TrEMBL record:
Localisation per UniProt entry: Cytoplasm, Cytosol
Catalysed reactions, as listed in the record: (2R)-ethylmalonyl-CoA + H(+) = butanoyl-CoA + CO2; (S)-methylmalonyl-CoA + H(+) = propanoyl-CoA + CO2; (2S)-ethylmalonyl-CoA + H(+) = butanoyl-CoA + CO2
Keywords assigned: Cytoplasm, Lyase
Species, as recorded: Eleutherodactylus coqui (Puerto Rican coqui)
Presence of the UniProt keyword Cytoplasm in the record: yes
PROSITE patterns according to UniProt: ENOYL_COA_HYDRATASE
GO BP, sorted A to Z: fatty acid beta-oxidation
Name of the protein described by the UniProt record: Ethylmalonyl-CoA decarboxylase
Highest taxon of source: Eukaryota
UniProt-listed Gene3D superfamilies: 2-enoyl-CoA Hydratase, Chain A, domain 1
Biological function: Decarboxylates ethylmalonyl-CoA, a potentially toxic metabolite, to form butyryl-CoA, suggesting it might be involved in metabolite proofreading. Acts preferentially on (S)-ethylmalonyl-CoA but also has some activity on the (R)-isomer. Also has methylmalonyl-CoA decarboxylase activity at lower level.
EC code(s) of this entry: 4.1.1.94
Amino acid sequence: MALNLWRCVMKRAEARWCLYRSLYNSSHGFNESEVKRKLAELSGGSVKLCKGENGIAELGISNSSRKNALSGTMMLELEERISDLEKWKEGKGLIVYGTEDTFCSGGDLNTIKAISNAKDGLMMCMFMQNTLTRLQRLPLISVALIQGKAIGGGAELCTACDFRLMTEGSEIRFVHKHMGIVPGWGGASRLIQLVGSRQALKLLSGALRIPPEHAISIGLADGTLSSAADSALEEAQKWITPYTKGAANVTRAMKKLIVCGREHLFEDAIRKEKDIFATVWGGPSNLQALSERTKYN
Ligand SMILES: CCC(=O)SCCNC(=O)CCNC(=O)[C@H](O)C(C)(C)COP(=O)(O)OP(=O)(O)OC[C@H]1O[C@@H](n2cnc3c(N)ncnc32)[C@H](O)[C@@H]1OP(=O)(O)O
């Protein structure tokens, strides 16, 4: 009876959570089907998702002839993979990585050229903001594993993860200024939240190269990985494990608290904290812990 009531509370909370995932819909002038049709014509590369039995998924950006640039079809695939992750109730963590020697070289310049008019550019911008905001709001603890360069939109993509791990010799760089543009995939707003407005202004207006030590010193990155390229994913899995250990519903509830605290005004956030608290209180993990009476000394 108590467990059924708890399941009911949890189902309602999950449903409410789904309501505020995307930023734009038709009421904002966003025509999703039209932008999807255009992006589908701009092909190359792929975005692969592998969901592990340990609750940690790996999302691989791959476009080997273009340094993992995101083509139109890859933008669509990225959105599909995020939809898949939103439905993955056993999930606890996510590692986003680039195959071979680059994290991501940003938007595919061929795709960008094909949609360089104002209307298409704005639609693509809203599509990518929706996708990366949904990535950031996933109830999974996410890590961007940066091997090689994260450039332009690639730098924006890595800011949508909770943590950034960089291998030696890697680099994050917002090169938008040199392209005569500014970030539009939400990268500037997220960068300000991560490093503050003064640092963000320096990084964006100087299009500065950000190596691992600099990224760590300003709070943009969370660690440097020392492993060789082929074992970096394994090292990232080890790094994330202390944060994802334990019951999925508790890890997911923790991440939801962080999203609420970050995105809502204090009063709104603290009310949402109550709703999320109700999804774990009296649940199986809680009852188990009560019966074990663990000490933390
Ligand atoms: C949303 C806003 C945006 O993201 S705007 C896009 C910002 N990105 C860029 O401008 C990236 C430009 N590319 C570069 O700076 C270099 O190619 C980087 C990524 C540093 C790699 O240098 P390097 O290791 O010397 O390789 P390379 O230049 O020979 O490149 C190999 C092939 O890949 C291609 N490539 C690279 N980046 C892109 C891209 N974003 N879109 C399309 N193609 C890209 C290069 O053109 C090159 O192709 P090819 O072998 O000459 O045919």
